[in-house]
Amino acid sequence: MRDILVINTSVSGEDSVSRLLVADLLIALTRLNPDIRVTERDLGAEPIPHLTTDTVAGVRAMPATHAEQESRRLSDRLLAELRAADTVLIGAPMYNFGPPTALCAWFDHVLRAGETFSYSETGPQGLLTGRRAIVIESRGGLYSEGPGQAVDFQEPYLRHLLGFMGITDVTFIRAEKIGFGPGARDEAIADAREQIARTVERLHGPVY
Ligand SMILES: Cc1cc2nc3c(=O)[nH]c(=O)nc-3n(C[C@H](O)[C@H](O)[C@H](O)COP(=O)(O)O)c2cc1C
Q1: Residue 62 confidence (pLDDT) above 70
Q2: Which end of the chain has fewer CB atoms at under 10 Å, N or C?
Q3: What separation in Å is there between the alpha carbon of 163 and the centre of ligand 1?
């Protein structure tokens, strides 16, 4: 692991649990390998624009107008950040049972036929193989068990889109029941920190 692309998406600034845990994981990874290079893309603080009628051709067709060329440039820049990374670390709160729309807008810009996936005779093929993703999910409620499981549109969606680009090695770290009061929040953070420690150990061997 040398080049990490960190994508934060929470709009909650310093109160954000996912941002806290992303920072924790980065500290642990940097301690183990001080040479890692980190590129940060903050979609919560500086969202990229959603595609519009004026800009969609910049991503999905041949850009012609100024607005389309601008959106092609942004898409190229985001793609370059993604390609340069061997590890993508995403901080993803659950908003309305799915990922933040800012993250969906990012996928709209990087899912480009011929760049991150292609169509073959056997169906679509992801082109960004040889990379891993770690996704830190923060949720107000509980979705990993019980009735909430059926309405978790966040994790399956993220797993599918990353896999669609060829990133099939995905670790999810969940911080759940954040909305159940301060005690539950602390417990969720402690539990997620244990998941982080296990993930780091799996990637680098035991940490003493
Ligand atoms: C706009 C919005 C929508 C949310 N929707 C859900 C939801 O559908 N389910 C849920 O469990 N929590 C929901 N929450 C709560 C967040 O998932 C929770 O506060 C989480 O900690 C946010 O991550 P963060 O702390 O990194 O910002 C929502 C929060 C916001 C701001």
Answers
A1: yes
A2: C
A3: 24
CA distances from 104 to 26, 51, 101, 111, 120 (A): 23, 10, 5, 10, 25
User: What is the span of the domain harbouring residue 187?
Assistant: 3-204
Q: Which atom of ligand 1 is nearest to the CA of 175?
A: 21
Is pLDDT at 205 greater than 80 in this prediction? Answer: no
Q: How confident is the model at residue 9 (pLDDT cuts 50, 70, 90)?
A: very high
Mean pLDDT confidence for 117-129? 95
Number of domains forming the structure of the chain: 1
Structure confidence at residue 208 as a pLDDT band (50, 70, 90):
very low
CB atoms near residue 17 (< 10 Å):
22
CB 143 within 8 A of CB 32: no
- What phi and psi, each to the nearest 5 degrees, are found at residue 138? -115, 135
**CATH number for the domain including 139?**
3.40.50.360
18 lines ligand 1 (CB under 6 A): yes
Measured in Å, residue 94 CA sits from the centre of ligand 1 at: 5
pLDDT of residue 204: 80
- In this structure, are strands 117-120 and 169-175 parallel, antiparallel, or unpaired? unpaired
